Amino acid sequence: SAAKRAEYARLLARAEEVGQGRCACVMVDRCGREVAIGIEAVAAHPLRHAVMEAIQRVADAHMREGLAQLGAKRPRHEEEYLCQDYEVVTTHEPCVMCSMALVHSRVRLVAYRTPDHAFGGLGGKLSLHTCESLNHQFRVLRWR
């Protein structure tokens, strides 16, 4: 819908603003509330990609709120995952590592602008979001 397109465009502008030329992403919950931002910091550590930074911020928030206990396992019947039903808007296509982290976190949707033909995991090199052998799939939107 036009309203959803406008919302994703607003979130992309937010990611571009916070990234200041670097890869950045914004995560929102199912109500559209911003829950985390991630900004690439690979100069500090090679694994600090924008998506990984945002997922880490969600995990940190869960720890602060007492939603998780260090070293504790969830009951098997519980179906809540770290980023379940979140939408992620990112300036660049997530790499394979970040794409798998999004699969494992159970996001609902990822939207990005700049493709990564060499390492992208959501249509660039691979399409992990549609891989039937994985136990979660999600929708991917790309701006052209």
Structure report:
The chain is an alpha/beta fold and 144 residues long. 30% of the residues lie in helices and 19% in strands. It is built from 3 helices and 5 strands; from the N terminus they run αββαβαββ. A 5-stranded mixed beta sheet has the order 2-1-3-4-5. β1 and β2 form a beta hairpin. It is globular, with a radius of gyration of 15 Å. The model has no long low-confidence stretch (mean pLDDT 91).
Provide a quick synopsis of the model.
The protein is an alpha/beta fold. It contains three helices and five strands.
End-to-end Cα distance: 17 Å
Strand numbers in spatial order across the main sheet: 2-1-3-4-5
Number of helices: 3
How many strand elements?
5
The percent range for helix content is: 25-40%
Low-pLDDT residue spans: none
In percent terms, what proportion of residues is strand?
A: 15-25%
Secondary-structure element series: HEEHEHEE
Secondary structure class reads alpha/beta
Mean pLDDT: 91
Main beta sheet: 5 strands, mixed
Please give the radius of gyration in angstroms.
Answer: 15 Å
Shape: globular
Secondary-structure map with pairings?
Elements: H1 2-19, E1 24-28, E2 34-39, H2 50-64, E3 87-92, H3 96-105, E4 109-114, E5 139-142
Parallel strand pairs: 3-4, 4-5
Antiparallel strand pairs: 1-2, 1-3
